[in-house]
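Q: Got a minute? One more chain.
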Amino acid sequence: MKNEQHHVKQVIIDPTAIGLFGLAMVTLVASSQKLGWTENVSGVLPWAIFLGGIAQLIASNYDAKHNNVFGATAFAGYGLFWLGTGMSWMIQNGLFGEVLQASFDPNELGFAFLGYFIFTVFMTVGALETNKVLFFIFFLIDFLFLGLFMSTFGIATDFFHMMAAVAEFLISILSFYGAAAAVLNGHFGFTFLPIGKPFGIIKK
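A: Always. Here it is, folded:
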């Protein structure tokens, strides 16, 4: 008698919920500091590392298994951003010694923010054809990085700092909604929380 092998197809979860929850948490805590509701960045660090960094990298890994280039790139890109930013804060606060702390040039962080602004602009174009919630999250991230690199370079510092702070807080609110929609829509099997259809602007 022939032995039959049954291959069970592995179902890979949609990582959108955990990725957006990670983004929502870190931007909520980070924006509280920018808006002056809290002080310093030491208390932001754990959320930058674990929620902003690791949670989004986990989401990226699952999106890669879905062969979702856009989702995997977005979650990996922003996950690594929070790890890099967290390390920059550690250097600024002397965790790696006085020599590195003394030689830290904030303008280098400004160029990193500029690079992420460029990254976010073309990701926003891609987000046009995902859903409206995700598009507006990317749209707000554009303003976050615009505010960050301009204020870091000392250009209209107060104005651009506040732009970044408000944009980051709104990113958090929309990301909480997006995470809730991803969980509850999938859990219930119907559109419990609407996220809006793609714009349908970019076509072959």
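A: The two ends are 53 Å apart (CA to CA).
Q: Perfect, thanks.
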